[in-house]
Structure formats: C-alpha cells, structure tokens
Amino acid sequence: MAPILSVRRASKAFGGLQAVRSVSFDLAPGEILAIIGPNGAGKSTLFNLIAGQERADSGEILFEERPITGLPAEAVARRGLVKTFQTSRPFASMTFLENAMVGALAQGVGLRRARDIALDALRTVGLESQADAPASWASTGQRKRLEIARALATAPRLLLLDEPFGGVDLPSIDALIELLRLVREQGMTLLLIEHNLEAVHRFVDRVLAMHLGETIAEGTPEQVTGDPRVVQAYLGASEAAHA
Amino acid sequence: MPSRVTSPAGLAALLLLLAVLIALPLLIGERPFELRMATVILLFAIMGQGWNVLGGYAGQVSIGHGLYFGLGAYTAVLLAVRLDLSPWIGLLAGTLFPAFCAVLVGIPCFRLRGHYFVIATLVVAESVFQIFTVWEWVGSAVGIEMPVKSEGWANFQFHRDKTPYYYIALAMLVLVTAGKWWLHRSRLGFILRAIRDEEEAVRSLGFSPQFYKSVAMAISGGILGAAGVFHAQYVLFVDPFSVLGLHISVLVALFAIMGGVGTLAGPILGAAILVPMSEYSRVYLSGSGRNVDLLIYGALIMLIAVYRPDGLMGLWQRVNPFRRQSVPVRKG
C-alpha cells in the first residue's frame, strides 16, 4: 500500500541553525507514528514543514502521492492533512459546538449540516454534553479534546498532533489515549510529537527519534526508547553511561 | 449576542424601536436641530456598523476608516459634477469604489498584525487625506460643491424639509443592520469570528484568513462609502477636512468600540449616546465646542476601558435578565 505521507530528505535552516537536516520517513495509512526527541531536536520545525507553516529549504513532502512542499497551511489542510497545536487554541468567543462547526464548515457544507457534523465530532471526543458551554471555560484536557474534535470535523485523512498530552493530568491522558485509538479505528492516520514516552509506549505503532535536526532512530517504541543514541540524546553522554 | 433578536421579546423590542424611529420626525416636529442630530446619529450608527464588520467580527481594528467614507462622498460629488450622473448611480459607485479600494488597502495591511495593522490603516488614510488637499481635480483643500438641483427623490436633494434625509438614513441603517444580523448567522460570520479569536487555528483548518478578511474589508469599506455618499448628498459639499479627516476615523471606531465591539446593537447604542453628548456639549458648554466634547470622550473612554472594556453592550448583557447563550442555528 502506498504511504499516505512521504517526507524525503527535508531540510530547514534558520540562519546558521540547521533545524531539520535531511529527514526522511514514510507513514502508512492507518498508522500511528510518534516523533520524539529532546527540546531543540527539530520536531516542531519538521511538523511545520509538513503542515505548510514553514517552507522546506530542500527535500520533498508528498501527501497521498502528491507533492505538498511549499503549499500554504490552508492548502495543505484542504488536502486532508490537519494539525492541532501544542498550546490549544480554541475560538474563545464561541461555544464548544461552534468551535467544532468551524472545522465542519471547512468541508464546504452549510451551517445546519455543519452543526450535525460538529455534534458527531463532539460525541466522538466525549464533549457532547458541553456543546453549548463557552469554549473559554474549557479545562486543559477539554481544550485538547475540543481541538481534536475541531480537526475531526474537517474530515481529515491525516491528523498531526503537536504534544497532545502536554499539560494534561493522568486520568485525562488515559482518556485521550482511548480517544486516539478510537480515531485510528475510524480509519484516520496519526502523526504526533510527544514528550510523554510512557504514553507513547501505550498506543503508537512506530517511533521516530530526532536529535539536533536529524533522525537518530526509528522503529517500535521499545526499540527506539532502548536505543543508546536516544538515551544519550535525552540524558546526555555522562548520565547515559550510568543509565 | 446579536442572535437574541430572534427571541419573541427581542423581536418585539426591535419592532417597537423601529416604530419609534419611524415616528420620530413627527414627535420632533418643527425642530431642525433635533432632526439634524437624529440624522447624524443614524449616519454614525451606519458607519459604526460598517466598521464593526471588520473591527468587531474579523477583529482587525482600523483607525483609517474615514478614508472609505471620504472616498464615497467624493465619488458621489465627482460623478455629479464631472458627468452629471444620477445621485443614485453615485450611491452605487460610492459604495463599490470604496469597497474595491478597501480590498486594495487590505492586501499589504493584512500582512501586519495587531498594533502594526492599526498604524498602517492610519498611515494609508492620512496619506490619501494629504493627497486630496493638494489635488486640484478633486478640489484640493478648498473642496468641491455638489450641483444644487430641484429637490426630490430623483435628485436625492431636499432643501426646505430635511425629513426625507432622516428616512433615507433610517432605511440604510435598517438594511445594514439586517445585513449584519445575517452575517452573524452566516458561514462568513462564523469564519470571521474564528479569525478574530485565533487566526492561525483557522488557517490550519483550511481557510485563507487573507481572503475572508478582504471580504470583510470590502463590506466594511462599502458601507462606509455609502454613508459618505449620504453625507455628500446631505451637505452638498465635500472637502478633505470634513470627510477624510482623522477625526472621522477616530469617531467611527470610538462609537463602535464604546457601544460594544462585535455586537449588533453596539454601534447604534454608541452613536445614540455619544452624538447627542457631543452636540449638546457643543451648544451648551463651549463656543467652539470641540474641546469640551473631546474632554468628555476622553473621560468616557477611560471609564469604559477601566470598568467595561466590552463596551456599553457588555454592560447591558450583564444586567439583561433575558440573556442566554447564542447558538445561531436550530437545536437538534
């Protein structure tokens, strides 16, 4: 089966800093891939290159075998590749339902149909009972789920999740993992950046580890987190020797 | 929020208000000062509604909107003076041309955010003002007079009794307000409000903020332009100071902000309170007027900024016993 996403030798520099250096990987339809790495590894820049928020200096990015390199973020999203943010960004003046409706409107439907789609999305993430509540009231966990609902309402084929567990308490992490499993069962492909390795272990298929802009390991969660280069990248050389 | 007008109580209140506004010239009687003031209130309410489309819904605060008011006024006068066209064609052209100019202004200005956008709108408006003060074809600083014609609806000129101007302004305000009510409940309104809240999030969902902000800019500029045409037909004269001056831009933004940004009734409320305040302070408190009403504005801005940053409508929404959440589509 052809990969849904192919990143081929993508590179990006900011002045003298090489943020992403010739990174390549494929993502199969229905797969969950997590990108891990310490701060400054280049994960967010790579995400931004894929989502169209930054333009790659070189390399190619294909979504469903069509090039998306250099397309603006809105064009990438219209192709079916939607990103959520590390710091959730709900539309604060709107209700939960209206937030999800904005996502549904991206499908080109009318308001009534958008409302039905939005309610389905809220139901999927377990926020249906909050539909008429102002989004500004949402807790961190609810914000994360609302943002996923908003993205789901666009009917994406690939979801990019930027630290979905960041700032979320333990019970909410369990619920989020269940949600992401459910989303995958519905046929979605997931690509995420995550620092919480314990959570990553519990539900992703494959992990790609980055350090200083480069891929240093790729494989199952067990293979990657056990890789000495990954341990060294996270803990530093001296601590790794004692690990 | 605006969708409250769909409730029976809201609709009844709206119809009652409309009936009062229709009957107002009869209640005022032979008092030209009050009739003029009522017309000016309606004019600023129209302008405030126009400003609010961009400033309130799309969250792009402009203090250069006097530009579109001035362009509308100049378009109407120039078409009448140079081509002897009907004022109603002038109204159409005076709406479309500023709308088009607004889109052009938006192309570079929307690349800027926040304070930088505000400053850019000011700079563009001020630049056009300076050009018009020296451009002879448009009358330069001296201005240009609208040809006086026989009074009547065909010529959009009423010399003895100014009541028809009041009704034209009222009709324009009703039309613009109805359009804004529709906008709030429309797909466009949803996306504009989302852009106001989180532009990057809107982009990540597949919408082009630049496109939607340009649409808002065009609607906003068009409404200001139509108000400018009305003003030109009312005073039969334009010059850069009266229609392109910075004070127009500031007042329009001020009325909308003090009334309540992003609300349907806010700009109307702002104009209804601030215009009489300005007019009466001009008459009773000062010979030349300007200093006192500006002092009052300054004090009001400080009071609202400190106590009710969401404007007078925010205050109303706080005390309104019928308030509810707005979900502007049917409940399932």
Short characterization:
The complex is a heterodimer of chains A (243) and B (332). Chain A has 243 residues and is an alpha/beta fold.
Mean pLDDT of chain A: 91
Q: What share of residues of chain A is helical? A: 25-40%
Largest sheet of chain B: 2 strands, antiparallel
Report the count of strand segments of chain A.
Answer: 10
The pair of chains with the biggest contact is:
A-B, 38 and 27 residues
* Fraction of residues in β-strands of chain B: under 5%
What is the C-alpha radius of gyration of chain B, as a whole number of Å?
20 Å
Low-confidence stretches of chain A: none
Low-confidence stretches of chain B: 324-332
Cα-atom Rg of chain A, whole angstroms? 18 Å
- In terms of DSSP E residues, the strand content of chain A is 15-25%
The helix/strand series of chain B, from N terminus to C terminus, equals HHHHHEHHHHEHHHHH
The percent of residues in helical segments of chain B reads: over 70%
Report the sheet with the most strands of chain A, covering strand number, pairing sense and barrel closure: 6 strands, mixed
State the distance separating the first and last CA atoms of chain A: 40 Å
Ends apart, CA distance between termini of chain B: 21 Å
Strand arrangement in the largest pleated sheet of chain B: 1-2
- SSE-based structural type of chain B: mainly alpha
So how many helices of chain A? 10
- Oligomerization: heterodimer
Give an overview in words.
The complex is a heterodimer of chains A (243) and B (332). Chain A has 243 residues and is an alpha/beta fold. Chain A contains ten helices and ten strands. Chain A has a six-stranded mixed β-sheet with strand order 6-7-8-3-9-10, with helices on both faces. Chain A has a four-stranded antiparallel β-sheet with strand order 2-1-4-5, covered by helices on one side. By secondary structure, chain B is mainly alpha-helical. Chain B has a domain of 213 residues. Chain B is 72% helix and 1% strand. In chain B, strands 1-2 form a two-stranded antiparallel sheet. The longest helix of chain B has 27 residues. The C terminus of chain B is likely disordered.
